């Protein structure tokens, strides 16, 4: 096969992949949609990028449109650039029309913008490794289609992903200035309550000393109060001494105006005490920043 023929095949495959993204999203076929992505995906807007597991990204989208009655998206004008190293980009325009379930306001939302897809050739064909959404204009309130508690779940997941990536700017952007973190089951020597800058100091220390950090989300659920979300996640870390720290966490997040105001964290106290040396059970003093 000539290089020109291969380039043409690659372009067709990439255009179909990006088009399939729109079809599966609009059909809310979340399991099939996840298969279009690499394991880790860089997503967001031009000014706010974050790296998340593909399932978390799809779960966040599901929460955003969980009450949509209709989603219709047109993706057009694909511009593909493929490189010899097995990577490619595809820029495409889109127009999205969505009808939510709100009865107290106009349920219609229209958005126009363009996507940048970053793609990678894998053993299973081309996959989307990154997606950047540039919104040019929007009419309507996107919240009309969100599941109750959807914003709280999304903010909580974004926070955990940013901590795992050691992206403290992105993590702290999710926190209210006076955020309260409660850990009622903490063993001796570990903090049971942190407030404001104490919370940021804790995570700054974790990011600085841990050799590896992974906080995969198992599941998230909404409470009846849409400001609250329950997130079940794992801690898979490597301590400075090279030992593993693994635990199972349940976090109750309160999110107000897009910021985490309360985080109540429950975990296996015995596993924590057995694996984390006493000198690492960081507890900042009252008022310490």
TrEMBL record:
Superkingdom field: Bacteria
Pfam families in the record: SnoaL_2 (PF12680), SnoaL_4 (PF13577)
Residue ranges annotated for the SnoaL-like domain, each copy included: 7-129, 157-261
Gene3D superfamilies, per database record: 3.10.450.50
SUPFAM superfamilies given in the database record: NTF2-like
Name recorded for this polypeptide: SnoaL-like domain-containing protein
Natural source organism: Kitasatospora acidiphila
Organism ancestry: Bacteria, Bacillati, Actinomycetota, Actinomycetes, Kitasatosporales
